[in-house]
Amino acid sequence: MSAPRAVKGMHDLLPDRTAHAAWLEARFREVARRWGFGEIRTPVVEPTELFVRSIGESTDIVEKEMYSFVDKGQDALTLRPEGTAGVVRAYVEHAVWTQEPVTRWIYMGPMFRRERPARGRYRQFHQLGAELFGDPGPYADAELIDMLVTFLREAGVADVEVLLNSLGGPEARRAYRHALVEYLEPRRPALSADSQRRLASNPLRVLDSKAPEDREVVAHAPRITDFLNAEDRAHLDGLRAALDRLQVPHRLEPTLVRGLDYYDRTLFEVRGRGGELGAQDAVCGGGRYDGLVETMGGPPTPAVGFAIGLERLMLLAPPPPPPPGTDVFVVAVGAAERLEAAVIARELRAEGLSVETDLRGGSLRSQLRRADRVGARLALLVGSDELARGVVQLRDLRAGRQREVGRDALRAAIRAERSAT
Ligand code: AMP
């Protein structure tokens, strides 16, 4: 049998990439803390029905991208393709509105979609997300978007710009849907097969199609922003004014739609600008979903949220400076000293130092070479003669200096050497 390989579209993160991911996650938590958000963790597996009901039956995700299976108890389950559905389920299941009028949650973790793998598009990917429940006003949207932009900047993304649109409320969407179908129906033969099918089930999704023939037709389609009622319009204007005042760069993009059904009113996206992520690829998508909590069995509760793709963010943001490496490399001069060298290493680790030893032993030279390779500045040479006298040799590997230090004075000596640079 050939050697097993990772599932197509799913990737290992080796330590240098993991360090970047963990750094971004830590920054996200830190920014979210400043905005008053707490972190929620929900299961990776949820009932299939949850996603069908929330994301929508005639979306790409539900139609063809979900990892769904029937488990041994005959339950229909799915690996979560996104985070909001599970977070809303948890919000309703724990009746969180009975404890607080406004709830601010972030989440992070793996998501699964069986998409065609490409650069920045994977079958297991990770999202950093935020949801704000209980506030219907445009300032809630603005505050959330301000947090998003602050995080992206602190993550190292240059040139952040938010693309904004409004899908209006249910009334505007009904009127728009009607106008859109009237426009598209006579042009049906020019559309892709997928879009022809969607025309009946979910015409708004035609706007989101990537097929070139669809894009040409869509370019001249009626725009949702012409169908907004006075309240929808006021919400959008209030949001834009707030973003102006908060100095968040943004632009109205009336053709923006997203691949999930639950959004209404505010919709937004942040895209890559050149670099490794294509200019059309979104690093973040979000919007308002005032009807979703009620659909899931809770009381009517306005909500707004976003999700950032971690892998795409890693393509846009430079990695952080490497963490400090090994402080001390403990070298056992002979095989007989290996155990005692391990004891000394353990004592130093208890002091918070990063300590390596070469457990394979080997010659003094090969051990020192290894110390060099891991970037250690100091080496401790542990020999039998020294051990008998209760001392070790402390060597500064860069300066090539070496001196004898008593074991009980070792910590102070290492601290002094480290602060000398
Ligand atoms: P969505 O949940 O579709 O609104 O996506 C939110 C963000 O998740 C996108 O802007 C991407 O950054 C990221 N994302 C979505 N799908 C994928 C994927 N298949 N691979 C990598 N990142 C993704």
Description of the molecule:
There is one protein chain. The protein has 15 helices and 16 strands. It has 421 residues and is an alpha+beta fold. The two termini are 54 Å apart. The model has no long low-confidence stretch (mean pLDDT 92). The chain binds adenosine monophosphate. The site of adenosine monophosphate (AMP) has 18 residues, from strand 6, strand 10, strand 11 and helix 11.
Separation, N- and C-terminal Cα atoms: 54 Å
β-strand number = 16
β-sheet strand percentage: 15-25%
Please give the largest β-sheet: 8 strands, mixed
Strand order in space, largest sheet: 1-5-6-11-10-9-7-8
Helical residues, percent: 25-40%
> What best-fitting shape do the alpha-carbon axes yield?
elongated
Summed over residues and divided by their number, the pLDDT gives a mean of 92
What's a concise summary of this model?
By secondary structure, this protein is α+β, with helices and mostly antiparallel strands. Helices cover 38% and strands 20% of the residues.
Task: Jot down its keywords.
binds adenosine monophosphate; 15 helices; alpha+beta; eight-stranded mixed beta sheet; elongated; single chain
Blueprint (SSEs and pairs):
Elements (H helix, E strand, L loop, with lengths): L14 H20 L3 E2 L5 E3 H8 L4 H6 L1 E4 L5 E4 L4 H10 L9 E10 L11 E10 L4 H17 L7 E5 L3 H15 L8 H9 L10 H7 L11 H16 L4 E3 L13 E6 L10 E7 L3 H4 L7 E7 H7 L11 E5 L5 H13 L4 E3 L6 H10 L4 E5 L1 H6 L1 E6 L4 E6 L3 H10 L2
Parallel strand pairs: 1-5, 7-8, 12-13, 12-14
Antiparallel strand pairs: 2-4, 3-4, 5-6, 6-11, 7-9, 9-10, 10-11, 14-15, 15-16
